Backbone:
């Protein structure tokens, strides 16, 4: 079994159905991102200032959830995990360089590409500006790619997964990732609380002065 | 009364997001994405204005090889993201035309930074073969080493420059 909609090989009628499903999956994706608070730049960048670790919590919970589901469904024969993994080959160096640049762009823009669409859809003009910027940047990449030589294809490891790298069964990798995520959540919450307490302590004297002036 | 500052519990939102992602993997055979849709809209616009140029640049020509640039799964998925985002914001009382920024930072400068960050991410997402959605989330969930290296790099890149652009939130 491949997937229910092996998209590239679909006939026209199935293709139309596939595009309709794409809208539905996107709708679910956009709605959840919005409800998580990801249409708001301050909530997203709070991750990088330690004040609001929602990005880490939502993202890693989502990955662990989907990972557990993928391993279970794959074991039950309902998902061909290896076929999905073919879509995510590893090119180590461009992925690390791209990740660093994308992370920097995330903090400068206040959104990542997906969440900028959500922000734009809720009327945030800075989100709309980011959507336009992503378009320009991706076109610029296509123009400059020939000048980058072999770099975009460097560090090519093909389909290379965590279980292959660690020589561990997939189920064990999922457990390890879930445990690391849980530890990260505890750490993130601890940082949030510490920063909130420090902020409160910094504001407290000012608040006393203000209320004192009324007496 | 609706409180626009109330969001879903992050862990519940994460489980919901994971279920959407897993369903996409199971039904479509691949995950979600975002940046490629903007790219395809851009290529379609270029094709309308300077078709010869699109054919001359390999990275642009490959997108319009078999079908029009917009006739692609990811374009429709992101159309759904627009609908879902609008639906979520409207029903939570968070929709409205505004520029999100700190009280003492100018709107023009905030728009300039939002655009510049977008340009950086658009470039980066093509280089890394995906963005936070299409690579980190979707590839990470199926345990791709490259997707995990990308994701950790995104956090590293963000923390490295955060201090430089903090003023826009003050």
Residues:
């Amino acid at each position: 079994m491949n997937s229910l909609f092996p998209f590239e090989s679909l006939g026209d009628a199935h293709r139309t159905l596939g595009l309709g499903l794409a809208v539905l999956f996107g709708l679910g994706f956009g709605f959840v991102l919005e409800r998580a608070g990801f249409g708001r730049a301050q909530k997203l960048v709070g991750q990088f200032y330690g004040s609001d670790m929602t990005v880490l919590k939502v993202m890693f919970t989502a990955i662990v959830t989907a990972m557990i589901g993928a391993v279970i469904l794959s074991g039950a024969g309902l998902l061909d995990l290896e076929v999905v993994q073919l879509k995510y080959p590893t090119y180590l160096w461009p992925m690390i360089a791209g990740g660093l640049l994308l992370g920097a762009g995330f903090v400068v823009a206040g959104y990542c590409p997906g969440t900028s669409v959500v922000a734009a859809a809720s009327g945030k003009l800075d989100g709309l500006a980011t959507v336009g910027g992503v378009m320009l940047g991706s076109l610029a990449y296509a123009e400059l790619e020939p000048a980058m030589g072999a770099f975009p294809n460097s560090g090519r490891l093909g389909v290379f997964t965590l279980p292959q790298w660690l020589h561990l069964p997939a189920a064990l990798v999922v457990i390890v990732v879930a445990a690391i995520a849980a530890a990260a959540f505890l750490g993130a919450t601890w940082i949030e609380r510490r920063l909130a307490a420090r902020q409160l302590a910094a504001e407290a004297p000012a608040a006393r002065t203000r209320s004192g002036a009324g007496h | 009364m609706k409180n626009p500052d109330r969001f879903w519990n992050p862990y519940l939102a994460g489980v919901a997001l994971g279920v959407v992602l897993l369903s996409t993997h199971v039904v479509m055979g691949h995950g979600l994405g975002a940046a490629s849709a903007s790219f395809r809209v851009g290529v379609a616009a270029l094709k309308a204005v300077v078709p010869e140029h699109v054919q001359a640049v390999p990275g642009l020509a490959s997108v319009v090889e078999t079908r029009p640039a917009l006739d692609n799964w990811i374009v429709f998925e992101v159309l759904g993201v627009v609908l879902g985002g609008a639906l979520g914001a409207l029903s939570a009382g968070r929709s409205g035309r505004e520029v999100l920024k700190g009280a003492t930072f100018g709107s023009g400068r905030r728009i300039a930074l939002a655009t510049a960050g977008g340009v950086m991410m658009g470039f980066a997402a093509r280089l890394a073969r995906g963005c936070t959605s299409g690579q980190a989330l979707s590839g990470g969930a199926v345990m791709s080493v490259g997707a995990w290296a990308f994701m950790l790099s995104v956090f590293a890149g963000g923390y490295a420059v955060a201090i430089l652009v903090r003023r826009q939130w003050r």
Q: What stands out?
A: The mean pLDDT of chain A is 91. The longest helix of chain A spans residues 170-212. Chain A touches chain B through 125 residues (CB under 8 Å).
